[in-house]
Amino acid sequence: MLSAPVPPFHLSGANTALLLIDAQHFTTTRTRGLGWAASERGINREFDEYYLQVDAALKNMARLLAACRAHDVRIIYTVLNGTKADGSDLSWQMRVSELPIPNGDPRAEIRSEVMPQSGELILPRVTYSPFAGTELQRLLQAAGVDTLLVAGMLANYSVGMTAREAADRDFGVVVVGDASASETFEWHQQLLNGIVGGLIRHRSTSEVIEMLEGTRT
Fold first, then answer.
1. What confidence tens digit (pLDDT) does each residue in 66-96 have?
2. Cys-Cys crosslink for 68: which of 56, 73, 93, 206, Cβ 3.0 to 4.6 Å?
3. Cβ distance 202 to 174 under 8 Å?
């Protein structure tokens, strides 16, 4: 309430990239990864709200991808995926949490509904932030990108962290809330309420499509 309004963003293929975070079986398929671990511990019902959001988010991700491709927006997938069998490339935080997924593990695969097309970058990471220890910022700046669309899993961790770090690195950020999923409905709403400000705004998939079409900012 004390901050100046978020400046308007004009999305185009020349200045915009979509960053799709962790659309993997590990984070989206209830019988694998997080869902399997919850079932093993007898707490799978605790994830009911999460997987309801995931189902909706995957549909909206597919719409978002189609719109971005139609407008020549760069698409970058970032995935939790370690590259060394002994885990020596993992951040300490990831080692403590026993993430990310080892290289070659089928749980690391991106869901078929939102699979990358030829030429779209898949950026493995071993930290929560896709900017830490990767070439992401350099790649974006070299391409002339100044605005990021951010969506994915788990929104209350990786999407929120990515949005804030991107803004600190001088990128305009649009968090696509209905193409993302948090652990509970309440946490997701808290994220969307609290993330807006500075260089970060929240939009739905339909609103982002309107922005790409030039009918809103």
1. 999 999 999 999 998 777 766 677 777 777 7
2. 73
3. yes
